[in-house]
Specification:
Helix 1 (2-24) packs across helix 7 and helix 4 (77-98) runs antiparallel to helix 10 (192-213). This protein has a three-stranded antiparallel sheet with strand order 1-3-2. The protein has two domains: 2-74 and 235-252, Arc Repressor Mutant, subunit A (Orthogonal Bundle), CATH 1.10.10.10; 77-213, Four Helix Bundle (Hemerythrin (Met), subunit A) (Up-down Bundle). Helix content is 66%, strand content 4%. It is built from eleven helices and three strands. With 254 residues, it is mainly α.
Length: 254
């Protein structure tokens, strides 16, 4: 039993490190994650790495294929739009439950996250916009006080954030940041119906943008620029952990 518990803890740590690297663009969509190489880099056996990859497969972020290993998934446009429809309903329910509980401190925290998005957008840092975006929406769901709702939201969020941030060509970080202002304004007024309307509008606009801009599977170039799509911040998947995460991983795993 202790060995199994230890392996599960390692697997969860590895899963979180890999997820952050996928979300930050170290592993680009369609890139391979080599189990043996990763285990060697982390100084661990392949068992917790394999378990971590299965956890990411359950989130819809990684695909495991017999005899071919793991790769970062690139879902099709319809799947991503469907995920946004579900997120819209989840967050609307979260708002209906959470607005009556919201405090001035919560509003201050949401305002700070919105300002972080705008500051990152002005700096052209898409990854920081995505990170603050996630925290903003996550806090709305968390304020619902419903743990089940939060778990369901977390199961969808990595899929949405990875591909909206890293795959959609020509995504404008300023547009993304601006999209949150009506939601924040409605939250400040503690107007539950207005918050729900703002969230639904938010996701309708995001879905429309996604459907119009997402490069379809097999397309090799950005239709607007003729350039291949690149990960946010210019990061390219190379099948290896980022240097910072490698240091963190070695420290965490002893």
């Amino acid at each position: 039993m202790p060995d199994r518990v230890t392996r599960s803890v390692l697997a969860e740590q590895i899963k979180e490190l890999l997820l952050e690297d996928i979300l930050s663009g170290v592993y680009a969509p369609d890139s391979r994650i080599v189990e043996t190489l990763l285990a060697r880099e982390l100084g661990t056996s392949q068992a917790p790495v394999r378990e971590a990859l299965r956890g990411l497969e359950a989130l819809g972020v990684v695909e495991l294929t017999p005899f071919r290993g793991a790769r970062v998934r690139r879902p099709d446009r319809d799947e991503l739009v469907e995920a946004y429809v579900v997120r819209s309903e989840i967050e609307s329910l979260g708002a209906r439950l959470g607005v009556p509980r919201i405090s001035d401190g919560d509003i201050d925290e949401l305002s700070d996250l919105a300002e972080q998005m705008h500051a990152a957008a002005r700096a052209g840092d898409g990854r920081k916009v995505a990170s603050a975006d996630t925290a903003f929406h996550g806090l709305i769901v968390k304020l619902s006080g419903n743990a089940t709702l939060t778990r369901v939201w977390r199961s969808l969020e990595p899929l949405s954030r990875t591909y909206m941030t890293l795959v959609v060509p020509g995504a404008d970080p300023n547009w993304t940041a601006d999209l949150h202002d009506p939601v924040l304004e409605a939250l400040r007024r503690r107007d539950k119906r207005a918050v729900v309307r703002a969230l639904k509008s938010h996701f309708d606009q995001a879905s429309a943008m996604l459907a119009s801009k997402l490069v379809e599977p097999g397309a090799s170039q950005d239709a607007a620029t003729g350039a291949p799509p690149v990960a946010a911040g210019g990061a390219a998947g190379n099948g290896r952990l980022g240097d910072r995460h490698r240091r963190q991983a070695r420290k965490a795993l002893g």
